[in-house]
Design goal:
The chain is of the alpha/beta class. It has a single domain, classed as Aconitase, domain 4 (Alpha-Beta Barrel), CATH 3.20.19.10. Helix content is about 30%, strand content about 15%. Strands 4-3-2-1-5-6-7 form a seven-stranded mixed β-sheet. Helix 5 links the parallel strand 3 and strand 4. The longest helix is centred in the last third of the chain and has 13 residues. The radius of gyration is 18 Å and the shape is globular.
Length: about 220
């Protein structure tokens, strides 16, 4: 990279409506099918980046997820002014590009919640912690798994051309960025959930809450008090 990184606290300006086709908010009353995600990339090199680095433990005491985007990689960014999340060249990026075993360690949901609120709408990497990948899926943030060489090519491309638009197809796993084309995978169960609009269990529950009330009314340990 030739430009000097900016140590200021970047805030993503990614627009969920423009970076994910047919995507509804993870906090909305219903979830729509998620078939394609597009946006500029943010390359983050390094293996075994755990959730404590993504979201330091001291921020887990918050009673809501609001504002967590301010603390994404807070300690790493403070220690390294050249950290990609400090670099103004990547401001507004919505697709994170990582290496192997991303999201390992603690199962804290605050890590994907913070990334989503920062503006990240999808992640491309060599591999992910299964729990992190599941937590991200429930927020409508697919994690695409690609080979090491493919990820390296994509990271290098974004580092050299931060304005390049990455497009990731959930169904086929095909990812394009400029002239680069690579094939990734999403676990079949998660892929089917995205394509059918059944990736948000909270929204699914609320959508049929009359049935929940009906069942609750029949349970003596709920109605008998």
């Amino acid at each position: 990279m030739t430009d000097s990184p900016q140590p200021s606290r970047l805030r993503s300006s990614a627009d969920p409506a423009s970076s994910g086709e047919a995507r509804q908010s993870a906090e909305g009353a219903a979830a729509a099918a998620l078939v394609r995600v597009s946006g500029r990339g943010l390359p983050l090199r390094g293996h075994d980046i755990d959730t404590d680095r993504v979201m330091p433990a001291r921020f887990l005491v918050a009673v809501s997820f609001d504002g967590l985007e301010r603390h994404v990689f807070e300690d790493d960014r403070a220690a390294d002014p050249a950290h990609p999340f400090n670099n103004a060249r990547y401001a507004g990026a919505s697709i994170l590009v990582v290496n192997a075993n991303f999201g390992c360690g603690s199962s804290r949901e605050h890590a994907p919640q913070g990334l989503l609120r920062f503006g990240i709408r999808a992640i491309v990497g060599e591999s992910f912690s299964e729990i992190f990948q599941g937590n991200a899926a429930m927020l409508g943030m697919p994690c695409f798994v690609a080979g090491r060489e493919s990820v390296e090519l994509l990271q290098t491309l974004v580092e050299g051309t931060p304005g390049v638009v990455i497009a990731a197809d959930v169904d086929t796993g095909v990812i394009t960025a400029g002239a680069l084309r690579l094939v990734a995978t999403v676990p079949a169960s998660l892929r089917d959930a995205f394509l059918s609009g059944q990736w948000n269990p909270t929204a699914m529950l609320l959508d049929r809450f009359d049935e929940v009330r009906a069942v609750a009314a029949r349970l003596p340990y709920i109605t008998g008090f």
